[in-house]
Design brief:
Elements (H helix, E strand, L loop, with lengths): L1 H36 L5 H35 L22 H11 L1 H21 L5 E14 L7 E14 L7 H68 L4 H36 L6
Antiparallel strand pairs: 1-2
Helix pairs in contact: 1-2, 1-6, 3-5, 3-6, 4-5, 5-6
């Protein structure tokens, strides 16, 4: 559910980016038409601008359709009406303060799979103790209280009553049970060894997952910084190129290239943010510290 939610967040931002691309194409088409009207442009530039406008509109509609599909999927995962429309928070906040040493310590004590393996080992050890207990003598203590009252109107004694405590002590000593005791102990020890191996295998697997997830997390944090800078540079380049196109100092293809670069940079940035968030979630799941509130 969490992954699906942030997928909706990412897709919302992709829709906004696609909508911004349409704004740029609309502006370009307007400039091309104006130049044609005053005799400074060509019909070819207008047609090219119209094709690019239609392409950007098509991309926007496809991104919008993907967003609707992701919303339906999230609604189904949340067991609610698939047709419910909503707006997710556009901010994808990344926790960039996760520390591997702290996560590893938390994983040892909070990871559910690791705790299950540890409990299974403890149960196996207690089972062996219980089986070994069958070797020792057993002593049972029984206590009770008796009360009797009789009435006989025709006899010499018309009434009688007796009461008192009763108690007993029973002792049993196991002598021979056909080697069943030894076999049960052997089986219990095998179970302990198996649970220890399972615990160690589970620990190694989880630590490997944690290490890999943290490496991804660290890499994505670095990429976020890089791609954020690329987004700013590409936007500045697009603004300059638009102005040059308006003044007629560059060809339409240069503007289209700058527009495409800006859109690609923004899309990469959104994807890296999304992947960083997934890596953060994976780390918190493994360490047992994920808060879904």
């Amino acid at each position: 559910v969490i992954n699906a939610y942030f997928n909706v967040v990412k897709q919302q931002q992709l829709v906004l980016a696609a909508d911004s691309a349409i704004d740029v194409s609309t502006y370009r088409l307007k400039i091309a038409n104006n130049k044609l009207e005053i005799g400074r442009g060509s019909k070819l530039d207008v047609l090219s601008a119209k094709v690019d406008y239609n392409t950007d509109t098509s991309n926007y509609l496809q991104q919008k359709n993907l967003l609707n599909n992701y919303m339906v999927n999230l609604n189904l995962l949340m067991a609610r009406d698939a047709n419910i429309k909503f707006v997710a928070d556009n901010q994808m906040v990344i926790d960039n303060n996760l520390n591997y040493t702290e996560l590893a310590t938390q994983t040892e004590s909070l990871n559910p799979d690791l705790q299950n393996a540890f409990i299974s080992k403890k149960i196996a050890e207690l089972n062996l103790k219980q089986i070994k207990g069958n070797r020792y003598p057993r002593v049972s203590l029984n206590t009770g209280y008796d009360f009797n009252r009789n009435a006989n109107p025709t006899g010499f004694s018309t009434k009688s009553r007796s009461n008192g405590y009763t108690y007993g002590l029973t002792a049993s000593v196991p002598i021979f049970n056909g080697f069943l005791q030894r076999q049960n102990e052997r089986n219990a020890k095998i179970e302990i060894n198996s649970s220890e191996l399972t615990l160690e295998k589970t620990r190694q697997s989880i630590i490997a997952q944690l290490t890999s997830a943290y490496q991804n997390y660290s890499t994505y944090l670095e990429l976020i910084k890089l791609e954020r800078g690329n987004v700013d540079i590409a936007k500045q380049n697009l603004d300059i190129t638009l102005e040059k196109y308006r003044l007629g100092s560059i060809a339409p293809l240069e503007l289209r290239e700058a527009q495409r670069n800006a859109l690609d940079a923004n899309n990469r940035y959104l994807e890296i943010q999304y992947q960083a968030k997934l890596a953060e979630i994976a780390l918190k799941e493994l360490s047992g510290t994920l808060n879904i509130q």
